[in-house]
Amino acid sequence: MIGLLKAIRGLLILVALLLAVIPLVMLISLLTGGTGYGLCADGLTRCDTAFLTGPAVAARICLALLMVAAAVRVISRIVSRVEKDRRREDARSRYMDLIDWTDHLR
Predict the structure, then answer these.
(1) Are the C-beta atoms of 82 and 2 separated by less than 8 Å?
(2) Which residue, 24, 25, 46, 52, has most beta carbons within 10 Å?
(3) 2-31 and 53-105 helices cross at what angle (nearest 10)?
(4) What is the distance between the alpha carbons of residues 53 and 46, in angstroms, rounded to a whole number?
(5) Residue 66 belongs to what H/E stretch?
């Protein structure tokens, strides 16, 4: 179970990195004569977008990054708690083995 949670956490971190790269990819597309992946239909020279198009895209990317970061935090806490419980149970079983061993000495 921990392995699956760690894999999901790693995948979410990868998604966050990809989300963070989106503005850079859009800018590179615009600068090389592209459409910015739909931001400017005719390229940068004849870009006729609304005033709030850029901030709206930025807000969506920021919201997505915050959601992914929150999911990574929740999964990290779950993994930490499960690992702590596993360590506690291991310590308890070692302690019980020691008690059993000392009972056999009597």
Answers:
(1) yes
(2) 25
(3) 160
(4) 15
(5) helix 53-105
Report pTM: 0.71
Looking at the 3D structure of the chain, how many domains does it have? Answer: 1
Distance CA 65, CA 72 (A): 10
3-state secondary structure of 70: helix
Q: Which residues form the domain of 68?
A: 2-105
Inter-residue contact 44 to 31 (CB < 8 Å):
yes
Closest by alpha carbon to 56, among 28, 26, 95, 83?
A: 26
Tokens standing for residue 23 = 């503005």
